[in-house]
Structures are given as structure tokens and as C-alpha cells.
Amino acid sequence: GSGLSHDHVIQATDFSGDVAWMKGDASKCSFNVTVQVSGLVNDEPDMRRTAGMDDNLSEGNRKDVKKAMLAEDQLNAASHPTIEFSSTSCSSVSGTTYNVTGNLTLLGTSQSVTVPMDIKADGTSFGATGDFTINGSDYGLTPKKAMAGQIKNQDKIGFHVTLGGSR
Fold first, then answer.
1. For 114, how many CA atoms within 13 A lie in the half-sphere containing its CB?
2. Tens of pLDDT along 109-135?
3. What is the pLDDT of residues 12-47, one digit of tens each?
């Protein structure tokens, strides 16, 4: 049955936030991002191809995945309409690589995460990219199972973050 399962690609399309960055002094950074759960888009063909995945999901599969993703036993969009990240510290690693540590709030549960980010700023524009993973169970997200456990979600959830802005 494991051949029937597939990975998903989710994109945040409705989000807001602010970043404060002082080149040369990472200790003065601030990252605050709020994502509207209802604005999450799943498994669009271009997104899947960009992530290196086959686009083998029908439109009906996509709709079913979105409904399940927002349901009460998963992201519970009705009770927890946002996912939030608020930084608590930043530190230089080397060159343009920094560790941004902060609280990620998902399903009303906050956990500290550290996101290694490549940050470039020139005084008028800012860009940052990074990747991190969490265990959904740390936030109360129980992996879904089907077919007597032969098909199940992974506990690990990977995030790819791209932020940009200008003064």
C-alpha cells in the first residue's frame, strides 16, 4: 500500500510580516511572519515540478488533500487560522549564513526552532532563504493513517522559506 502514498508541496499565499536587519550586527535582527492557514495552496503542478516531484495528482486528489489538510484533526484551520514565527535571536555563522532562532506556533503550540538562513542585504533590499524541519507531533499534529497503517503521513515536515523586501 505504500506505493499509493505521495509527498505534498504546500505554498503559503496569504502571509504578512516584518523584518528588521542591521548589516554587520545580527544581534539586532527581528523576523515576524504570520501565515493564514486558509491561504495554503497544495500540490499545484508547477510547485510539484519545482520541488522535483512528479505531477501525478488529479484535481480531485488535490481538493481531497486540501480538505484533509485543513480539517479539525490536522491543521484545524477553524480553530487555529494562523501559523506564526517570531524570532528571538540571530547569530552569524559565516559569510552570509546566519542562524535565526525563534518561536514557531502551529496549532496553538509554540516551539523554539533555529533556521539556518542565507541573508543578503544592501541597504535598500533584503533577501533571505532557509530550510528547516519539525516533527508535527511536537505541535500536536498526528500523522494520518489509512489502510490499517500501510499508508501514513510522515511526522517530519520540511519548510523552505524565502523572504524578500525593500526599504
1. 9
2. 999 999 999 999 888 889 999 999 999
3. 999 999 999 887 788 889 999 999 999 999 989 888
Cell numbers for 48, please give them. 510539484
Task: Report yes or no on whether pTM surpasses 0.90.
Answer: no
SS (H, E, C) the chain: CHHHCCCCCEEECCEEEEEECCCCCHHHCEEEEEEEHHHEEECCHHHHHHCCCCCCCCHHHHHHHHHHHHCCCCCCCCCCCEEEEEEEEEEEEECCEEEEEEEEEECCEEEEEEEEEEEEECCCEEEEEEEEEEEHHHHCCCCCEEHHHCEECCCEEEEEEEEEEEC
Complete edge-to-edge strand list for the sheet that includes strand 125-135: 15-20, 30-36, 82-94, 97-106, 109-121, 125-135, 156-166
Q: Which grid cell is 109?
A: 503550540
